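Its record is quoted verbatim for completeness.
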Amino acid sequence: MCIRDRGSPEHVGAASSRSEDDSSAPRRRGALWYRLSMEGTSLRVRLRLASPPERVSFFLPGTWAGRDDHHAAITLRRARTPKGDRSFTLHRAERRVDVDVGEAPWVELSYDVALAERDSDRERFSPQRVGAGYFAYATTLLILPSARVCEMLADIPIEVRVPHTFKIASNWPLAHDSRSRTNPEEHVFGFVAPDVASLRDAFVTAHDRLDVDEGAGATIVYERAFDGDRAELSGAIRKIVAHYERLFGPQRAVTALVRAPHEGKARTLWGTGRREGFVLELTRDAPVDVHTKILIAHEAFHLWNGHQLVPTPEASARTQWFKEGVTQYVALNALARLGVLSERDVLDEWARVAARYARATRGEGVLLDALMREQLPYDRGLLIALALDLALRQDPGSEATLDDWILAMLEDLDADAGARYGEDELRDALVRVAPAGSRAESVWAAAVERGDALDVPALFESLGLHYLPPASERPPRLIPLEDRRALFRSLLGAASEERRPAH
């Protein structure tokens, strides 16, 4: 579907339903439309909904990435139909906009989004100014119709208008781009999100400080402030993505954005996965070292675990160990299999995880700081993944591994498009790949269902490793035991990719 360069979005297709409650109506293709353009230091957004109810509600951005004030950057300008402006009521506390539409074929809402100055950790997730352009996560940017309307929408066009000197990067699927017929100094990019989940789960950046590296397997976009080894970084990204695609099935497209702070600003390594894309924030001259590669592998795997496999809202907090900790385990495994990390690199990372987990779970009533609370699901999840992978491999007559569990989850998603998981779905998929009465079921019952603390030294000993906790002048350490079968090496060995089903 192409987005034509027109002065207004009146080409959006009409829908067949007039009721927000008619969930049995056919999918409404192209019934919701967005246009993004710069207006001074703000980003102006127009949205149009075809065949709306007589009174329609729209919702401002809610809580995301630990913040609930994203809506404060939004200023509503007007609501209109073909008959002219319509009255609307903003309920800021509820983040809701009610519009009296009456009988009209479409309603349009126009609003401005204030752009924050970048390089503030607080503003990391806010729409930001980048030179004369911007960077934004769609989650903080878009006003949406009610959930019932959203469930019926498909093929949502997003039209982005920028000066012709700008480049643009987004993980929305690109459908069309051309010079504007009405303004020769403007370029029009047309994207089409297949559904509302893809619409929201996106980033978009548009400015004249972007370099695009097109290549097989992934498109990698660099902010020009990044002075590191781009060839090495691009190679690492493509190698990791290709490995995951061999194991877990291809992505339609992958777009990676590499951002860097302005001169004089330092920031630790950080990233975020999106659907069919991810964002890396690196220091200006960041080397492609162990830490950078782990970050890439973690964020790249979120394309599968986090954005194909998505928890239900009510299970999100309880299953964060799976989304983050299992992802970190798979990321380290991938890097070991690819020969990117050495055995010692992985053992050192496992040891650091074990030390943090032990500190966070030591006794009752221990006060955790914010960083420890944030890190705990990652560390607990990695150790659960390690225990489950070992248990699956030790079950008599079983050839299953943790990869098979993830594949079973992905196959469930294919069988029921749009399905989300909770604890029951995770367990059901595990039981299907594990023998009846398996060790993996026992690990699940103790670590997940009962929430028992993991016996970390015993877990490592069963892998043929001796765990040395940190001392005053010594970091935590894992020492291979010479008199034990080194099972940990089987976890880090080459993947059995030849028996992976096409996905």
Summary: The chain has three domains: 28-207, 212-288, 313-499.
